[in-house]
Amino acid sequence: MNARMYSILMLAIASANIAGCTETFPSSRSTIIPSTITIVPTATPVNKSVFTLNGYYKNGNYSFQNDTSVMTEEFRIPVDATTGNQPWGIEFHITTLTENNSSWFEIKVINIDTGKSEIFGYGDSYGIEKDQGFPMYNPGPYKIEMTGNFVSVNLKIGNRYP
Predict the structure, then answer these.
(1) What is the DSSP letter of 46?
(2) If DSSP states are collapsed to H, E and C, what string results for 89-110?
(3) In this predicted model, what pLDDT tens digit does every residue of 41-71 receive, in sequence order?
(4) Which residues make Cβ contacts (< 8 Å) with residue 81, sequence separation at least 6?
(5) Which letter does DSSP use for residue 13 in this model?
């Protein structure tokens, strides 16, 4: 009878282990909690109501019909005699020329003296905000290189207030 009880007890323990009833560590099955992914753009446009432009260095419309169109222009931001600096800014408004998602625009602003540059844009990795404004700070000679695909751009570069 002892051997019979021992066999039944061993069978019960083996059954409990197989069924997973004695597991003391967390199960490998976990609950998946959905999360939100936040994409941070490299160049964040400033709300255009934060500043206004006046005394334009560039104020015009540009049209880009294909991705090989490149337009280059140069201008100079003068040094303010009082402060030694001249805050300025760039604003652009995009009008897409096609209904599909192939419209994009990119503007590269290059300080000719230092070689430093900043790139802003619309579409692709730049987001879909059609009205953008960027504060700029240093005076000097600048060159802008613009490229795009199926967009019309109203570009303003001028003194920034405040």
Answers:
(1) B
(2) EEEEEEEECCCCCCCEEEEEEE
(3) 445 566 555 789 989 999 999 999 998 989 9
(4) none
(5) H
Domain boundaries defined on the chain: 48-161
Residue 114's SS3 state is: coil
Which three-class secondary structure state does DSSP give residue 19?
helix
Instruction: Give per-residue pLDDT as tens, 94-152.
Output: 999 998 889 999 999 999 999 999 999 999 899 999 999 999 989 999 999 999 999 99
Residue at token pair 């303010």: 80
Spatial separation of the C-alpha atoms in residues 22 and 28, rounded to whole Å:
15
User: Could you give the CA distance from residue 21 to residue 2 in angstroms, rounded to a whole number?
Assistant: 26
Contact status, residue 57 vs residue 158, Cβ threshold 8 Å = yes
* Domain 48-161 coded CATH 2.60.120.380: yes
What SS3 state is found at 149?
strand
Question: 68-103: string of b/e by CB count within 10 Å (b at 16+)?
Answer: eeebeeeeebeeeeeeeebbbbbbbbbebeeeeeeb
Residue 4 DSSP one-character state: H
pTM for the whole thing? Answer: 0.69
Task: Judge whether 86 and 158 are in contact, CB under 8 Å.
Answer: no
